[in-house]
Amino acid sequence: MALGALLAANLVPLVGVLALGWNVFDVLAVYWVESGVVGLLNVPKILLASGPYDGSATFTLNGRPMDVSGPKAVDPDAGPTVHPENAFPALFFCAHYGIFWVVHGVFVLFGLPAFAGASVGGLDVSGIALAGLTMLVSHGGSFLWNYLGRGEFRDASAVERMTEPYRRVFVLHLTVVIGATLVASLGGAAVLVVLMVTLKTGFDAVAHLREHRRAQ
Fold first, then answer.
1. pLDDT digits (tens, 9 = 90+) for 106-161
2. What is the reported pTM?
3. 3-class SS at 65?
4. Rounded distance between C-alpha atoms, residue 10 and residue 112, angstroms
């Protein structure tokens, strides 16, 4: 179900290219919005994570070490609960991922168009907003179906949830941006944009399956 919704959401940029005349910059803007959706939904995932963290990473605040081992003595049969112990990891993620997202947006919305001699003012803002809403429904459905419904929050740790979006978003969008750079330098042919969207959809599906396989 969640995978089907993800694939359906990934068809929206394809429709935009084939039916609405979107160019590579419209598609990249959609993917940038999607990365924001992924980060936004990861905040409640961190707060609800009930599993312990036994890794080696340490975190400090004003020179003081912070306990990120997770909630203690959690009832394995309990439902989703916001754990105060996860507040610091959630705040740390918001700051770090927020910077990453803003820098990514500056490159996508201004840097790459400037490189290709295009104008950011030509973006289909309403279409991109609608596509972003579709992505929110898709990823939100996965959050409800997998993380809450299938109980993935019980074994997930807050620190693991902090790093998960980077595994999925960074490599995926690095691939997309490199592809978009090639598309822009070759004149932005629609067939190349369609190919880029298709590859991104495939990468996204594989990342989705790997993430939930690890959770299981």
1. 887 777 667 666 555 578 888 889 888 988 988 898 899 889 998 889 888 888 88
2. 0.80
3. strand
4. 22
How would DSSP label each residue in 69-124? Answer: S--SS--TT------GGGHHHHHHHHHHHHHHHHHHHHIIIIIHHHHHT--GGGS-
E strand or H helix at 66, and its extent? strand 64-66
- The token pair that represents 184 in the structure block: 């822009």
What is the four-CA torsion angle of 82, 85, 91, 94, rounded to 10 degrees?
A: -60
Between these two residues, 180 and 164, which has the higher pLDDT value? Answer: 164
Q: How far apart are CA 160 and CA 46, in angstroms?
A: 8
Summarised one tens digit per residue, pLDDT across range 169-181 is 776 666 666 666 6
Q: pLDDT at position 53, please?
A: 75
Q: What do you get for the CA distance between the two ends of the chain, in Å?
A: 16
Cβ–Cβ < 8 Å for 10, 199:
no
Beta bridge partners of 61: 64
Residues facing 60 on adjacent strands: 65
89-122: b or e for each residue (b if 16 or more CB lie within 10 Å)? Answer: bbebbeeebeebbeebbebbbeebbeebebeeee
Hey, what are 66's tokens?
């912070």
